[in-house]
Inverse folding.
C-alpha cells in the first residue's frame, strides 16, 4: 500500500516523502501519480524515508489506553479520551486526512505495533502528560493553564508582572520559527493622508516615540516599523475608504535580519522536537496565539485587546538566538493569507527608497470572499 505527500500537513514528513522521489497512486487520500511512500518498503528498510516508521512509533508512547477497569482514577479525564486517530487529528498537524483514514494509515504504517497492541489503536486513549501535573507546570507555556486564562490574567489582573508564563518554553517555540531576511528584500508602508495632500517621505517611517498608537505588536508610545510585502495589501490594511489619498513608501532591508516567523507557529512539526509531550501539551496554545495574530482588528477594538500580542512581541524583542538579538517579527497579513507583514523593532534596519514614494487615491473597494457569520 502507498500513502503520499498529500496525506500529510507535516512539513518534515512531506519533505521526506518527496525526497524518496517515487510517484504512485495513494491508497488513503486517493491522489493519482503523486510523490508517494511504499509502506512495505518503509517497514522493511530503515533507511527508506529516514526511518519514518521509527518516528511514528514514537508517537505511540505519548498515549495510554483509557481503561477504567484497570485505573478508575482516570475517570476525571473522561472528556479527554478519544481514539488515537482522533487525538492525532485534533492535537497535531501531522495529517491531512479525515480521522477514519488516519486510523487506517496508522494501522498500516505501524503494523508491527498494531499486532502487538490493538487496543491502543481501537480503544479510547488519553495523552500521557495529563497524568503528570508537574510536567504540565514545568513544560506548559502557561504552566498547565490555557491561552484564555493567560489573556484574562494579562488584560485584567497583572499586566506587567504576570507570572503565568514559562517564558523559556514559549521562546523555544519561537526559536523554532526563526528565519533570516536577506539584504535587499523590499517592503511597503502605507498611510492615509488626513488633509488631502500626499504625505512627505520623512513622515513615512515608524511613528515617533511617545506618539505611536497601540498596535498588534506594540504598546502605545512605542514606535515600531510595520511593513508589508505588497503595496496594495498595505493600502487595504490601513482601512482606507473610498476617495482616501494613500501614500505608499517602499523600503529596502539594509542588513540581514533575524526574524521570529509567527506565521509558522502553528505549523511546526512534532517530529522536530525531542520533547514531544511538550509539543502536544502546548499545541492548542500555539494555535490560539496564531489566531490572535490573525484576528482582524475592528476600528472599535480597544487598546486592551492588543495586550496579549504586545506581551508576545516584547518577549521576542528581548530574545537572543545564537547570541544574536531578534530584529523583528514576521506574520500573516490580517487581510490576505498569502501576504506576509513584518514589524521591525529598530526602524533603521530598513532604508526608505526616497525616489519610490507614490500616492494613490482609492477609487473602488471590492469585497471578495465574504463569509457568513450568523
Ligand atoms: Zn495520499
Amino acid at each position: 500500500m502507498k500513502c503520499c505527500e498529500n496525506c500529510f500537513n507535516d512539513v518534515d514528513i512531506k519533505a521526506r516523502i518527496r525526497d524518496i522521489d517515487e510517484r504512485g497512486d495513494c491508497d488513503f487520500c486517493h491522489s493519482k501519480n503523486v510523490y508517494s511512500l511504499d509502506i512495505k518498503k518503509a517497514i522493511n528498510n530503515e533507511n527508506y524515508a529516514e526511518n519514518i516508521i521509527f518516528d511514528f512509533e514514537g508517537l505511540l508512547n505519548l498515549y495510554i489506553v483509557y481503561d477504567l477497569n484497570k485505573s478508575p482514577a482516570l475517570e476525571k479525564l473522561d472528556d479527554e479520551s478519544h481514539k488515537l486517530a482522533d487525538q492525532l487529528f485534533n492535537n497535531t498537524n501531522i495529517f491531512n486526512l479525515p480521522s477514519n483514514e488516519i486510523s487506517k494509515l496508522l494501522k498500516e504504517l505501524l503494523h508491527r505495533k498494531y499486532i502487538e497492541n490493538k487496543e491502543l489503536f481501537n480503544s479510547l486513549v488519553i495523552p500521557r502528560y495529563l497524568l503528570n501535573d508537574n510536567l504540565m507546570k514545568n513544560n506548559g507555556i502557561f504552566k498547565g493553564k490555557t491561552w484564555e486564562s493567560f489573556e484574562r490574567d494579562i488584560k485584567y489582573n497583572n499586566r506587567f508582572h504576570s507570572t503565568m508564563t514559562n517564558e523559556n518554553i514559549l521562546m523555544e517555540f519561537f526559536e523554532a520559527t526563526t528565519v533570516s531576511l536577506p539584504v535587499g528584500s523590499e517592503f511597503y508602508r502605507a498611510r492615509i493622508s488626513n488633509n488631502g495632500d500626499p504625505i512627505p517621505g520623512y513622515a513615512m517611517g515608524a511613528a515617533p516615540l511617545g506618539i505611536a498608537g497601540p498596535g498588534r505588536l506594540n504598546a502605545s508610545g512605542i514606535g515600531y516599523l510595520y511593513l508589508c510585502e505588497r503595496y496594495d495589501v498595505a493600502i487595504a490594511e490601513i482601512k482606507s475608504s473610498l476617495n482616501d489619498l494613500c501614500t505608499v513608501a517602499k523600503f529596502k532591508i539594509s542588513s540581514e535580519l533575524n526574524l521570529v516567523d509567527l506565521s509558522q507557529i502553528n505549523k511546526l512539526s512534532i517530529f522536530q522536537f525531542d520533547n514531544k509531550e511538550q509539543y502536544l501539551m502546548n499545541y492548542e496554545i500555539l494555535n490560539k496565539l496564531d489566531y490572535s495574530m490573525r484576528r482582524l482588528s475592528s476600528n472599535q477594538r480597544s487598546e486592551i485587546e492588543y495586550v496579549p500580542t504586545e506581551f508576545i512581541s516584547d518577549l521576542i524583542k528581548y530574545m537572543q538566538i545564537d547570541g544574536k538579538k531578534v530584529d523583528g517579527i514576521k506574520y500573516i497579513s490580517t487581510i490576505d493569507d498569502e501576504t506576509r507583514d513584518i514589524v521591525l523593532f529598530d526602524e533603521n534596519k530598513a532604508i526608505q527608497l526616497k525616489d519610490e514614494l507614490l500616492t494613490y487615491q482609492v477609487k473602488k473597494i471590492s469585497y471578495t470572499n465574504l463569509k457568513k457569520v450568523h
Remarks:
- The first strand starts at residue 2 and ends at 4.
- The pocket of zinc ion is lined by residues 3-4, 6-7, 26, 28-29, 31 (CB under 6 Å).
